[in-house]
Sigma-54-dependent Fis family transcriptional regulator (Dyella monticola), 322 residues
Amino acid sequence: MLGQSMAFKVACAQLRRYASCDVPVLIEGETGTGKELAAREIHYSSARRELPFIPVNCGAIADNLIENELFGHERGAYTDAKCAQRGLIDHARGGTLFLDEVDALSGKAQVALLRFLENNEYRPVGGGMIRISDARIISATNSCLEERVAAGCFRSDLQYRLNALRVRLPPLRERADDVPLLAEYFVGVVAKRLRGPMKHWSIDALQALTTHAWPGNVRELENVVLRAYMRTEGAIIELDAAELVFSVPADAVGPVIDGSKDSFIEAKHHAIRAFEYRYLSQLMRRAGGNVSAAARMSGTERRQLGRLLKKHGIETNQFRSQ
């Protein structure tokens, strides 16, 4: 967990407090924000740190296998069950079971998990004896469970059980101050992995990294760093090496300035419009289409920013899904 922005520090402070509270924790955050890292931070800062941390991707488990994966099975439970097998809950006994993408659980799987959370008791498939596991449950989702409950896709009683404590991990666009720090860190990681020399970012490249919206968050940044490192021969990673043209879409380049036809005043006017268009496009991408957040980032009044967006025909909706 690396960062120094206020949003990141607030989330980390919550993680440290929750480590000492031995109850279920729900971690919310967009894809790539580091939810498993946050879960590990809770586990390894808690009294359970010497016991297992078992991660499981709920979206990758078939509905007909969920009870077998969670609770295990006894010998002879079904045709191919030639020997007993421990479930993930048993492997996490005394430690932490991390349920990533918990919102992907089917209705049947939700019932099975709820039954365990009510009293920490479970029964292996094909087994007669009830067993007890005191594994701590930390779950994560990239959607809002309350909205899933309202839509009838998630059980409200299970949501209450998982949501004893909740922490939201901020997306990278809300912690832009951390981007240079993370970019330098990942360069070091890549250099070590590839056994290559340490490299550094140019000012232009860092500026482009900072203004990008990062829809894939930290995971996307890590991949960009890898590509940039591989494409750079020298010690300085320049703007083009990281393919950072994605920070300005092709249709956001603005009008072309033709010095042979335009007067100085006209050329200046076109240059200003081109700058405004590029700046506003980058700003709205960074703010995720939120005009109020963009106004705060740019130090502009919301009404004035709205007029500029209208002037350039920039629709904010196109940035909200990125």
